[in-house]
Amino acid sequence: MSATGNQNQPIPYIIVPNVENAEKLIKMAEIEVGKTGFYTTTTKSDGIRFKCDTMEKHKALLEFCTKLHSSTFVKSSLHEPKRYRIIIKGLHSSTSPDWIKYKLAAHGHTVLYCKNLIGQKSQTPTNTFRVDLEYKENNNEIMDINKIGTYIVNIEKSIAHTSIIKQCHKCQKFNHQTEDCKSREFVCYKCAGKHHSAECSKPREKEGKCANCGGNHIATYQGCPIYKEALENYETQPSTPKKQSHNQMNNATPLLSPPRPKNAPRRQYDLLEQLELLKIFEKNLKDLNEAHRETQN
What we know:
The strands form four sheets. The protein has a four-stranded antiparallel beta sheet, with helices on one face. A four-stranded antiparallel beta sheet has the order 8-9-7-12, covered by helices on one side. A two-stranded antiparallel ribbon has the order 1-2. The chain is of the alpha+beta class. The protein has six helices and twelve strands. The chain has three domains: 4-75, Alpha-Beta Plaits (2-Layer Sandwich), CATH 3.30.70; 83-157, Alpha-Beta Plaits, CATH 3.30.70.330; 162-235, no CATH class. Helices cover 28% and strands 19% of the residues. It is extended. The protein has helices spanning 22-33, 55-68, 97-105, 225-236, 246-250, 266-296; strands at residues 4-6, 9-10, 13-16, 38-42, 48-52, 73-75, 83-89, 111-118, 125-134, 147-148, 151-152, 154-157. InterPro entries: Pre_C2HC_dom.
């Protein structure tokens, strides 16, 4: 069961993390917004997920939960269809996305999204396009295409890069996560507006606005100067040396012990070790005796 107001506008979930008394929270919600129009499920982090039947109920319940629990956040109730993302290099920057869709359709591929990539330094269109294909069994075959129209192209599968910098999806700031956010306001990562990102009405084609630097990009863009500054500060922090675990210290090879023969009984291993130590002792004693004779002569 998934709550939707209509086919075009899915109603996002309301998630209250780290709930200490779920029964009390639900009873207070029923008193505040009524006993009908929503239901609850649990999350892995001891939280409560509210699912509403209407946007009116969602807004009322969200306002109540936000006042009661500052870490409340929303999450899309519907997952986007699985996509196969590729990068096409070699096309002219003025190439129309519709022309690319038409040409790839002739090869049996359905294009869901196509965009010319902008150079991070030059901030001008490049000869590289990002294309999202409808997920099919023949997606890998697109790598065999080396010519689109008259263009010689190189097609690669896009590899997602996971950031090592934590970013809050509530206020969009860095170095903390949503459940640890102390802000009482939600900030949209798409347009920097004071609303939930899931409720943003900005068209996908329209340029975004960064909530951190004010630039013409979304707040999750890794070319953002604020993100780069956070990354630089992270990389310049002194790394603490890793401590050896108890097992690692126990498994360390003794300096004077010979390697234990495979399948050798423990008693035999102890005897071999003692013999090896005895040989070392005899050699050292012989060296001392020779040195003593030389001093007497």
